[in-house]
Amino acid sequence: MVATFRRHTLAGEMLVLQLAIVVVVLLAVAAVSLAQSEATFNRVEGRRVGALAEQLAANPLVRNQLPRPAPEQTLGPLLHSTLVQSGVTSVTVADASGRAVTSTDPTVIGDPLPLGPGVTGGRGWSGEVTWDGGHELVAQVPVLGATSGDLGRTLGIVMIGERSPTVWQRLGGASSYLLAYLGIASGLGLAGSWLLARRVKRQTLGLEPREIAGLAEHREAMLYGIAEGVVALDPQQRVTLVNEVGRRLLDLPEACVGRTLADLGIEGRLRDVLTGTGRDMAGRHDQVVVRNGRVLVMNRMTVTKDGRPLGSVTTLRDRTELARLEREIGSFRSSSELLRAQAHEFANQLHTISGLIQIGEQDEVVRYIRTLTRRRQSLDMTIGRRVRDTAVAALLMAKSSLAAERKVTLRISDSTALGRLAPEDAADVATVVGNLVDNAVDAAAGAGPGGHEAWVEVALRQDAASVEIAVRDSGPGVAPELAQEVFTHGFTTKAAAEGERGIGLALTRLVCERRGGEITVTNTPDGAEFTARMSVSHPVEAVAEGAAR
């Protein structure tokens, strides 16, 4: 047979512990009570036996009979009378040498008394002695001569003793109230233990200590075993829990638990997402936040219990590399869109040429082809003269076709002058240009028909160590209160109009800041103008000042 043992519950363990504490306290109280009882006995009885001994030593009969032969015959009745009247244990009279001459206990006659210090010199003394096989509290007083012949001389010693009660005798005398105290204390301990156990049960959601320990171990394993960051806040915006990944992603100090977000210096967009107080938090779960060069996707959930808010738990995922891959994929998607737009444009032109041929307008075909050729050569020559970097020039020419498909004119500013760049510089410049042009085309095309031409103008300016990119559009512009928020939150121009949020401009800002530059937005009479600046290495080929003329 396999014996099974039932574990004690939290309430049972607390009850046993409380009762054990009550018993220990009662034993300590009993010990203190016994000590106090002994001290009280010594003080009260010591005074009583001392007064009796002084009274007996001053008795004229004792003074007269003690120096005479056989004093026990005359003093015996007096000693027994004193014993009966006072209720003491023993009364003994000794001679000047300290040997008992008479006593209420005949067995001690002739035995030396256990004298205290200074008694033979004429001083009284009281204390505890072991006498006649017992422990007594005694008072010893010298009998002094009163006649002229022996005035002041010690004639003998009177000793009166009161036997000290034993521990069991004292406990027997106090057993009634000690048992009452034990019963009352046990009842109070039992009731208090039960109430305390109920309260602890309620606060621990009915879990036993071993279950709580198991949950704590599982929580630690889960928090520190997942690749995502976790941050928990209480209703006062204090950090109550954060794992190592979350602390690293948010760049928090090690001693951050228990501190508020304000103490940790968390402000702006990140604070809004963690507390759920932003304007766009309602109904949205995944939020994009840029923190210290990282693109974080955060999901916040509110925690409640019985309708009472307990705080919130936010998970964080580092999507920096994913954002970079999405950007690269976006560039391929953009290229495919550009190719599709060009193919669509060429197909329309071919259809026009085919139709002219079918109706026999050969001369009109020639004029149409010459017009298309001059327009393409004009655009290619304009971009080619002003933008010597082939990657950026190809991007702008492709973007012009995409803009034309959306009935937006892409213009190159007369002040544009860009030389050939190093490959890594050209990639970043093309990323910024492409993103800003896409946002500008979205804004210009989304402005809707209003009797005005939709256009986007690009200006590229370069000096020895930096490149400035300015993109203007004929769109509705950016609201003044969103002038900086668009970069923090990841707005795009289209997002600003529709209220949805992205990360395009936030990533553009990261590229500029990584190269020691910046990006700003201002409103012009026609629309919005985004200006980006970034440092580059020495250009492979510089552009002359008059190359754009």
Task: Present the secondary structure layout.
Layout: H1 10-57, H2 60-65, H3 72-86, E1 90-95, E2 100-103, E3 125-131, E4 134-144, E5 154-163, H4 167-203, H5 209-223, E6 229-233, E7 239-242, H6 244-249, H7 268-275, E8 286-291, E9 294-305, E10 308-318, H8 320-358, H9 362-386, H10 390-405, E11 409-412, H11 423-446, E12 455-462, E13 466-473, H12 485-489, H13 493-498, H14 504-514, E14 518-523, E15 528-535
Parallel strand pairs: 11-12
Antiparallel strand pairs: 1-2, 1-5, 3-4, 4-5, 6-7, 6-10, 8-9, 9-10, 12-13, 13-15, 14-15
General description of the model:
The protein folds into 3 domains: 10-169, Beta-Lactamase, CATH 3.30.450.20; 224-318, Beta-Lactamase (2-Layer Sandwich); 322-548, 2-Layer Sandwich (Heat Shock Protein 90), CATH 3.30.565.10. With 549 residues, it is of the alpha+beta class. The protein has a 5-stranded antiparallel beta sheet with strand order 2-1-5-4-3. Residues 1-5, 490-502 and 542-549 have low confidence and may be disordered. The protein has helices at 10-57, 60-65, 72-86, 167-203, 209-223, 244-249, 268-275, 320-358, 362-386, 390-405, 423-446, 485-489, 493-498, 504-514; strands spanning 90-95, 100-103, 125-131, 134-144, 154-163, 229-233, 239-242, 286-291, 294-305, 308-318, 409-412, 455-462, 466-473, 518-523, 528-535. Helices cover 48% and strands 20% of the residues. It is rod-shaped, with a radius of gyration of 54 Å.
